[in-house]
Amino acid sequence: MEKSRRSFLKIAGVAALGVGFTKPTLNAYASSVVGPHPQIGDKALSAHHWGMVIDTRKFHSEKDLEPIVEACHKAHNVPDFSDMPNATSAEKKRHEIKWIWGEPYHNAFTDKENHYQSHRIEHLSFPVLCNHCEEPPCVLACPTKATFRRDDGIVLMDFHRCIGCRFCMAACPYGSRSFNFVDPRRAENLKEETCPDFPTRMKGVVEKCNLCAERLAKGLQPACAEASKGAIAVGDLGDPHSNVRVLLEHNFSIRRKPSLGTEPSVYYIV
Amino acid sequence: MNDKKLIIIGLLIFFGVCSSVCWYNWLSAAEKGAPEPLLSEKAKAAGYCVVPKDKMKAEHMKILDQWREHVVRTGKREYVIPETGRTFNMSLSTGEDSCMGCHSNKSEFCDRCHDYASVKPYCWDCHLEPKEKE
Question: Scanning every residue of chain B, which has its alpha carbon at the shortest distance from the alpha carbon of A205?
Fold first, then answer.
């Protein structure tokens, strides 16, 4: 049978119409039949861009930091090797895992060091943690996408995917990441007690602050903010009326190493 | 040239020895049978899981993997089943409605089959197993 050009074009036209109509029709049908599916919980806190404002004026001594560090490290089962038996102080330091800790001004703000500094700033221990950068170098360095930046600005880790290459640790200019050189469950504090709400890590995995993504999902504030008695505020930097933006509007603030262009989401009121 | 008998006997012994592993396995399996996971009281009372039992048996590792992806990457932490109106906490080991929240008897529920099948999942290197009551 010979096909004329005319009949071929007719069939082609009908086929094209058929294809054009089928997809939307099928889609409409598919959306009306919803099976089991994952969703974000009702209680979950959300933001366009999560950020943190730390009011350092409310910190007077290292003692003020302790409950904050403890709350964070307890909530996330962070191992403490400071009382490791038969270990030198250098070894203890090497095995140290920290999510939030204190750092003197000249270490925290390396490009803001003046010859003459106020007494308070000189002797203050600044709480430092992962800055949840807008341009996170750790995310660029990670070869397995174990570290990534969520749409809401949290720089998060999928511990399952971490291969322990430590590129992220080299990339992070804030030293916010720690490596588990030994099985964290060997730490005395985790042998005694673990928090059932968060897993531990295993040997060979990097870890860091996750801005309490698991607590935000339950409608809770991050552990550090909760323990800080108002010195640490966590909120939406993308909302001009949020608690953090109001704080930033009324107070002078600085960020760590801004010249590197990582755009930290953690602000310090000094 | 009259070694026919010897050769046949030799071959039989050879194949018998070679296939002994299979025979041993079949016989011992018929004797003991594959273990059934035991349900905790809470799981028994609930009477349903995230997906039907057979699918769960075959695909729980895939489901866990998908859950991890959703929880970590998209922040979706609740698994809704519209037919029953139930929601589950998409977590292996944390919270009431998580896997272990219901199946709190890891040694009877997880380990029995995993040991039998000789699989060694590394879930418990990080995830905390529920404390089992003696």
Answer: B126
